[in-house]
Amino acid sequence: KNQVEQSPQSLIILEGKNCTLQCNYTVSPFSNLRWYKQDTGRGPVSLTIMTFSENTKSNGRYTATLDADTKQSSLHITASQLSDSASYICVVKGPFNKFYFGSGTKLNVKP
Amino acid sequence: GAVVSQHPSWVICKSGTSVKIECRSLDFQATTMFWYRQFPKQSLMLMATSNEGSKATYEQGVEKDKFLINHASLTLSTLTVTSAHPEDSSFYICSASRGVEAFFGQGTRLTVV
Question: In the prediction, which pLDDT does B39 show?
Answer without folding.
Answer: 87
